[in-house]
Description:
Elements: E1 7-10, E2 14-21, E3 36-41, H1 43-54, E4 58-65, H2 68-79, E5 83-90, E6 96-103, E7 109-114, H3 128-132, E8 136-139, H4 144-155, E9 159-162, H5 168-175, E10 180-184, H6 185-191, H7 197-206, E11 211-215, E12 221-225, E13 228-232, H8 245-259, H9 263-276, H10 290-301
Parallel strand pairs: 1-4, 1-8, 2-6, 4-5, 8-9, 9-10, 10-11
Antiparallel strand pairs: 2-3, 6-7, 11-12, 12-13
Helix pairs in contact: 1-8, 8-9, 9-10
Amino acid sequence: MTRSLDIVGIGVCTLDHLMTVPNMPGDNVNMRGSAYLQQPGGLASCALVAAARLGAKTKIIARIGDDDAGRFIRRDLESEGVDTSLLRTRPGGSSHVSLILVNENSGDRSIITRLPSAAPIGLDEISRRDITQAKVLFVDNISELTLEAARWAREAGMHVVLDPAQPYEQIKDLLDFVDVPIVPQQWARAWMPNRPLSTVAETLRRAGAAIAVVTMGERGSLVSWEGGLEHVPAFSVDVVDTTGAGDAYHGGFMFALLQDWEVPAMARFASAVGSLNCRALGGRQALPTRHEVDAMIAMSNS
Length: 302
């Protein structure tokens, strides 16, 4: 089957307001921040932009409000080359907005969110063709739509990549249709609090995944596949902000899936993308090009 699209993603789009602070404020504190940035975010949105920067053809399926935040989100995605033909707008609706405080010393962050008034995209608003025209489906939550879309994708022989925004007990039915779960260590520890992270990766693979990944921030990632279990370290960069590093990793891994590389090479490429994204404030400012990623990997090999 000839497919006209590389990656289609279903998820929430946000507008993020980021500010760097010397430390996280307590109650009744008047603190002066330094850098400020307004930038779209969201798991699916940032992962798709990361893949688009690398050269993939991507499309977002989501809903936004018709407020200033929604218009900003749409313009930014279009400027990055993401197809927004299925980015629906709810008249009178407010978009998802987040305030992110970034510790200027460590790059760690705290996030405060205002949920959107616009309901997520429903199953009756898309067709099977909207999903199966792509080679990879990205999902970050379970709903009637994502469950059916993942089923369609697997029946069509597509990869389904998951970045879970919900705990295992809520999302476990979706995992039946996911062949590449890439989960953060916080999610893994919440699911199996007394087990090694390697056990989480191997359990996900034995449950049906072709490739299972646990990301561990500055400690890299653990990758389980039929060839074994491997620890892939992160790359060394001057960290400004870790916001979006996991999203960038997902975008890099999906791009690598399209290339059909060996699994360790996929994970190493994704690790380079995630690491490079930490060089600037915000989840997208430092998303790398393919040339930058290749150069970092080549330098580390020399």
